[in-house]
Amino acid sequence: MTKSTLLTILLSSSAIGLAAQTRLSGKIFDKDGQPLQGATASLLSLPDSALVAQADAAKDGSFLLQATKNGDYVIRYSSVGYATILSKSYTLSGAEQIATPLFLQALAHTMETVNVIGKQASVRQYADKMVVDVEGSVLAEGNNVLELLEKTPGLVSDGKGNFSIQGRAGANVRINGREMFVSGEQLASILRGLQASEVSKLELVSNPSAREDASGTAGIINIVTRRNRKRGFGGDAFVRAGQGRKFYGGFGGGLHYKVNDLDLYVQGNTSYDRSKSHNLTERSFFNKGSLTSFQQQYESKQLDDASFHSVRAGAKYEFSDGGILDGSVHWMKGNYKPYASIEMDTWDYPANIQTERALSNNRFDETFKNWTFNINYINKYEGEDHFLKFNFDFAPHGNDYNNRFETNKFNLQTNTKSVTGRTNVQDLSNTTYSGRLDYSKPITDSSKIELGWKGTYFYIKNDVINTVLDQGQWLRDDATSNRFQYTQHIEALYAIYSGKYKRIEYQAGLRGEYTFIDANQVTLNKKTDQSYFDLFPSGSLLYNLNDRNTLRTSFSSRIERPGDHDINVFRIYEDAYSYNEGNPDLKPEKSYITEIGHGYQNKLFTTLGISYGRDMINWIVRQGDRVGENLSRPENIGRYLNYSASVMYNQTLRSWWTASHYVNAFYNNYSGQIDEVNLDSRGSSWTANSRHTIQFKYGLRTEVALYYRSGITTGPSRTDKRYGLDLAAEKKMFGDRGMIKLAANGLLRNANPRLVSEYGDLKVFNSDFPDNRKVLLSLSYRFGK
């Protein structure tokens, strides 16, 4: 089905005549008067109590219900862990009414050993996204966000800043809705520096609407940071310490002040990381199918000096006319200094003779600084759906690399020794400017239109100086030293029409993006310009079969543009035998995603999906310039197909025991031709996550999480299975103001996850032994309100 055909179908469906409707709005709070986001308000007709409409409460607790005809109705209020309540009856007769504010009471069940206060499910499925609760999780304590994402249901991480959603590679990672515009390794550094304790929730949007940027061929991972929700003045402080193969820890805290229409907050933390790991890599080099050389590499890596610092501050003011002005700043700094020792043995075939032994010492010194400045304003008119938003982001980022390795090579045939070495010094900076306008206006009582514009300007500068060790002297390597500048400018417009007809909710959208890219190899005095325009249709349908069952379907088209690191042709050496370089001829990759799903009682959710991609960008490891060397370079893979099925079930086993289960099975198929080498890589995979929360009396709560991930095919590579068991407990103290937490990650774990990659004349096997068994103890205290 073509994009234009699908768009015609979706727009045609939105032209169905709508009956005049009447509206009933209100707000839901908990017993303390705090907005109860995610609580459900269901509109029931009288006298048959048939479900007419349903809505989830927004951040401020507000909801809006619409009825197709006049009559008598009641509202059923419900939320996991809270008592279900029916409102008084309302007679609707055309004009919008405001329901009396409702305060839900938490369920409490006292047993001889257990005192339970329920909470919403840790993993929740909505029509357009899956949400993972982090703020309410005991297990999140002590993890950085990179580790947190590696254990999130539906996600697969390679540990280097690249993520897959339901087996589809190319997920776009954002923080509070803002794209990062950094490479995989840079993103990994930022996520290591961001602590899970700073995160409120994770949003996995596998099929985004036209409102969102089209980048990210697998969808969007949005990391939502914590924000003050309490009134008055208060704050919190924490300290934590952990032990893996090395000792690590951190401390931090925050202050907030919220009174009348003003809300101020500041939060900061410092963490220190230590670790010790090792891995085994075997490379087999072939010539016309015959083995010619074999390498076995053992690497021992130690991290003795890594520190990460983060400060977030913000202010929000609500005007009397309904307008809201919100501003924030986020500063992060990290320093990462691992060092590694490598033993490399080389054999020649078919003689099966060991010809060389090499001993290397690698030292890395990497520092990053990241700023994000944000200001946004929303002007609300009549009703929640009539507003104008303005948003501006300014985000400068810098990375400094000073890496060095020296290698002693022993020729076992001639009994001679040689010494080689390299340094790689990079001064990398990038700056992002982004502005957007969003306008929403109801057309009828049951439909609205959304229009928007976004402009993004991204500039990067990378100065690289490499030196080589030649007869005891360090000399500049002009062949790899370079200056590289990269500019990406995107202008986007979108339109979305959404509405409701009886039990059907629908949305049709179209986004257009104009892209201009300027890559300047200053050293080579060579410029490459690209400009192109793309249309990205999207649409969704939600059908409420009854008050227990819903059906949903969605479609979107996505793009992944080559980044600066993808097209920079100059080489970066990782060690004496491994290096990587960019590919200036890369084309943007595109994908088309379709999903259909079913929901039952907001507890059981099933989803089927198909994704088709072309020109997929994948880093391919192949034989280097000389036998025994390997080169990593990105290429466009011709075609990609993904079939996926997932089931999520939120279960209440006992009144004091809740659980969330998630199972995802998928099949990946990559096919195409790269450098006259045919690629036909396919494989099925499945993942499973099960998280259990048990609430005891005296403020004691425990969480247990089990996860399993089978082998996964990505391009020419396939990873082996991974699994683990994590356990955590928390205890409230000092009148619920204090908290002590104990977490054990990796009680049961796969100690050596493996990977196999085959391309052309090179086959690579890697077995990793990461430092992923850790025990952590933390103390926190909340003061004020």
Summary keywords:
mainly beta, six-stranded mixed sheet, 30-stranded mixed sheet, 4% helix, globular, 785 residues
Structural write-up:
It is a single chain. By secondary structure, the chain is mainly beta. It has 4 helices and 50 strands. It has a 30-stranded mixed sheet that branches. A 6-stranded mixed sheet has the order 12-13-19-20-17-18, with no helix packed on it. Strands 2, 3, 5, 6 and 7 form a 5-stranded antiparallel sheet that branches. A hairpin with a 4-residue loop joins strand 10 and strand 11.
List the helices and strands and how they pair.
Layout: H1 3-13, E1 22-30, E2 40-45, E3 51-56, E4 62-67, E5 71-78, E6 85-86, E7 90-92, E8 97-98, E9 102-104, E10 108-110, E11 115-117, E12 123-125, E13 130-133, H2 145-150, E14 155-157, E15 163-165, E16 168-169, E17 172-175, E18 178-179, H3 184-193, E19 199-205, E20 220-225, E21 232-243, E22 247-259, E23 262-287, E24 290-318, E25 324-348, E26 353-363, E27 366-380, E28 387-411, E29 416-444, E30 447-470, E31 473-476, E32 482-501, E33 504-521, E34 526-544, E35 549-560, H4 564-567, E36 572-573, E37 578-580, E38 589-600, E39 604-623, E40 630-654, E41 657-674, E42 677-695, E43 700-709, E44 712-714, E45 717-719, E46 722-733, E47 738-749, E48 754-759, E49 762-769, E50 774-784
Parallel strand pairs: 1-8, 1-9, 17-20, 37-40
Antiparallel strand pairs: 1-4, 2-3, 2-5, 5-6, 5-7, 10-11, 12-13, 13-19, 14-15, 15-16, 17-18, 19-20, 21-22, 21-50, 22-23, 23-24, 23-49, 24-25, 25-26, 25-27, 26-28, 27-28, 28-29, 29-30, 30-31, 30-32, 32-33, 33-34, 34-35, 35-38, 36-37, 38-39, 39-40, 40-41, 41-42, 42-43, 43-46, 44-45, 45-48, 46-47, ...
